[in-house]
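# step 3/5: fold
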Amino acid sequence: MTLNAQRRRKIVSIGVEWVDGIWVQDHFLASPQVRSLVDCARLRRERGDFAVARIGSAQQRPEIRGDSTCWITPPLLLPAERTLLAELERLRLSLNAQDLLGLFELELHYAWYPPGAGYARHVDQPQGRAQRRVSLVLYLNEDWTPAAGGELRFFDAAGLHRDIKPIAGRLVCFLTPGREHAVLPTQRDRLSISGWFRARDELNIIRS
């Protein structure tokens, strides 16, 4: 079954329920784990590991994308990050076992949006590349309120949209190909861990 066919129906896998190609799991991480990852991100920011995000491989366009990112790359990991990667590896194996998605590796980064920042409507696959199969976002924002904005917005072919609030511990996964989405402007600091489960046949890692 193709990824597009999977998007059109509900798929139930091991602990994962896709609806229209999207899966939302609250409390994927407990509050102590969330706080530990927030501390990791804070430490990395203090030591200068974050950089302004780019569009594609080169351009900085803050009017389109206003976050700063820090890649989470083994073996230079903090303890809470190693624990998270182990959790996501179990998820990768579950997705492959039940949904036969052919997920081979994970690329992952922190994304910090300052007040006023967002990310305009886009897709996660670089042009001409098809290795990213499943996108994921894990939110680290405690005490988030509706007035803070910063929702993840999904668009569909009918011109409708679905908004998901970036509350702490919530994991959002979606089938990457063709899925248009955006980050609405945030009114306070907004922190997440974002990434992609990828297929095996990528020769050069593209970070965009």
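# step 4/5: annotate
The radius of gyration is 16 Å.
# step 5/5: archive (pending)
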